[in-house]
Design goal:
The structure holds 2 protein chains of 2 kinds. Chain A is mostly helical. Helix content of chain A is 67%, strand content 2%. In chain A, strands 1-2 form a two-stranded antiparallel sheet. The mean pLDDT of chain A is 94. Chain B has one domain: Ferritin, CATH 1.20.1260. Chain B is globular. The chains are: A mainly alpha, B mainly alpha. Chains A and B meet through helix 3, helix 4, helix 7, helix 12 and helix 13 of A and helix 1, helix 2, helix 3, helix 6 and helix 7 of B.
């Protein structure tokens, strides 16, 4: 998931074309890059896919934070494989966005100068080894909740990227749960790490679904276009319902004293995250926003000579080939 | 030197090279110049850590003291590490990281090719699996060294600086001692010195394409593969890598 508060663009197109477009979507057809589409649909998708791609890229940082300290060779290998997958997801998604007419460099620059966002979750730190388990279990778990329905999204390239991504994400979630299970079943210190990770990451994970439906102003158009498949609250409830029994199995306590099963609704009642905190994080005031963006900017700036060098070489090579022909 | 001791030393040398270099490469995670490089660096590190599991796993078996690959990786002090110094030098800029990778991959690919014919089937099997991965590492690091060496003025300058900095660490890969002599006698591994000619031919070709100049000096820093004198950098690397295992002894992760 990793798309939050995507502002949907108002669209001012020919009503007949719009109606025909909506009819295709309602009939379950896929929209392909060369098909006519409303400008608002295109722009909203760029924003959503771009935010998702950026999240995969920035998401390497909190996990990369533990690669060099992973406690066993196997855990190190699994974490490397996972981070590699995530960079790969970023790549498919940037490619999907490119089919909408925006280059990877353009949207990368929009991330770097703050015009585009990434998921709020990656502005929280990973402080102990159990966080790596918790990121897989909770963060990837929340992401899957949103991405599974997006496999049916109306835009063809996005839907196909999601199908590929979902396969890998479910492996990520399983390895995360396995890693935190080892901790929860381990020494008292390891249990403490697992509980500490859950305490810190529970509410930020709930925030991943975006604001409450009553405050979510952009949903209706996106849902009609099938680029958003469920409301924020529906997905959040599903996530809570799935995760509570898993936490119980682990012997960990979800940091919500009011959490309880509601027989009548057939769901858990839970406490909403502190939305003022969420809006602060979105504005740039989360615990890691500044450092995350600085790290990405540094990587981009320090890498300029590499990109320029490789490009210059490719041009020379092409020129030499051309001259030889 | 007893055959088993020499074999153990040899396996540590293989496994510590991949462990320490894998660690260094993994430090790039999320900081590479372009997304494809983030993926490639993570992939290279992953291969190297996978190879470490095999080499150090076999080392534990040969040592016969019931130690796992993890015990060997996480519970030795710096003086027991047997990687060449080249693997432990800090990443520097992307150019130095890729130059180090190329200088190592070139040796690694030749070494694994010889080890595929080892008299020890377990060594031959690990070499066979690793050589496929390393063929790709070499292709990629060589292409990048050529691309950046023959790129812009700045990229050329940085790659020449990287080569000049790393060159004194190359010779150690070809130094032989009595453990090596024992391995040659047993038909388990080649004499390191015997790889040099093929190595020089390979790197001369690639570095020539990269328009880079190989330094004339043959002076070699040494002390890594014998453990006699590592660089100051290894201790810092180990404090990070071994921290959890050291701070919480006996925990299962």
């Amino acid at each position: 998931m990793y798309a939050q508060m995507i502002k949907s663009e108002a669209t001012q197109d020919d009503p007949e074309k719009l109606a025909a477009f909506q009819a295709r979507i309602d009939a379950g057809e896929k929209i392909e890059p060369k098909d006519w589409m409303p400008e608002g649909y295109r722009k909203t998708l760029i924003r959503q896919i771009g935010q998702h791609a950026h999240s995969e890229i920035v998401g390497q940082l909190p996990e990369g934070n533990w690669i060099t300290r992973a406690p066993t060779l196997e855990r190190k290998a699994i974490l490397l494989a996972k981070v590699q997958d995530e960079a790969g997801h970023g790549l498919y998604l940037y490619c999907a966005a490119e089919t909408l007419g925006v280059s990877r460099d353009e949207i990368t620059e929009m991330l770097l100068d703050g015009r585009m966002k990434y998921s709020s979750i990656f502005n929280y730190p990973t402080l102990n080894w159990a966080d790596i388990g918790a990121v897989g279990w909770l963060v990837d778990g929340a992401a899957i909740m949103n991405q599974v329905p997006l496999q049916r999204t109306s835009f063809g390239p996005y839907s196909r990227a999601m199908i590929r991504i979902c396969k890998e994400e479910s492996f990520h979630q399983r390895q995360g749960y396995d890693a935190i299970r080892k901790m929860a079943e381990g020494t008292p210190e390891q249990k403490k790490m697992a509980q500490d990770a859950l305490n810190r990451l529970w509410y930020p994970s709930l925030m991943m679904f975006g604001p409450s439906d009553k405050d979510s102003v952009h949903s209706a158009q996106s849902m009609a276009w099938k680029i958003k498949m469920n409301t924020n609250d529906e997905l959040r409830q599903k996530f809570v319902d799935q995760t509570v029994p898993q936490a119980e199995y682990l012997g960990l306590t979800i940091p919500d004293p009011d959490l309880k099963w509601n027989e009548e609704r057939g769901h858990y009642d839970y406490t909403d995250p502190d939305w003022s905190e969420f809006f602060e994080v979105i504005k740039g005031n989360g615990p890691c926003n500044v450092d995350r963006l600085a790290a990405r900017n540094k990587a981009w700036d320090d890498g300029a000579w590499v990109r320029d060098g490789l490009l210059a070489h490719a041009k020379k090579k092409a020129a030499r080939q051309h001259a030889a022909e | 030197m007893a055959r088993e001791d020499a074999f153990f030393q040899f396996l540590l040398r293989m496994g510590d090279n991949t462990l320490i270099l894998g660690h260094r490469v993994s430090e790039w995670c999320g900081h590479a110049p372009v997304l494809e490089e983030d993926i490639a660096l993570a992939n290279t590190a992953l291969d190297l850590i996978g190879q470490t599991q095999m080499w150090l796993g076999l080392a534990g078996e040969v040592q016969g003291m019931g130690k796992s690959a993890d015990d060997i990786a996480f519970l030795r002090d710096a003086w027991d590490f047997r990687n060449v110094l080249l693997c432990e030098v800090p990443n520097g800029d992307f150019g130095r990281t890729l130059m180090r990778q190329f200088l190592f991959d070139a040796w690694h690919s030749i070494q694994l090719g010889r080890l595929m014919k080892s008299s020890d089937e377990r060594v031959a099997a690990i070499a066979e699996k690793a050589s496929k991965e390393v063929a790709y590492h070499l292709e990629r690091s060589a292409d990048t060294v050529v691309g950046l060496g023959d790129g812009t003025e700045e990229s050329h300058r940085r790659m020449q600086e990287a080569l000049d900095y790393l060159w004194p660490y190359v010779g150690e890969m070809f130094q032989s001692d009595e453990a090596d002599a024992e391995m040659v006698k047993a038909g388990i591994a080649p004499d390191p010195a015997s790889l040099r000619e093929e190595y020089d031919a390979l790197i001369s070709r690639i570095l020539g394409d990269a328009t880079l100049t190989i330094p004339e000096s043959r002076f070699a820093q040494k002390g890594g593969r014998t453990g006699a004198m590592h660089t100051e950098h290894l201790g810092h690397l180990l404090t990070q890598m071994q921290w959890l295992q050291r701070a919480y002894p006996g925990a299962k992760w």
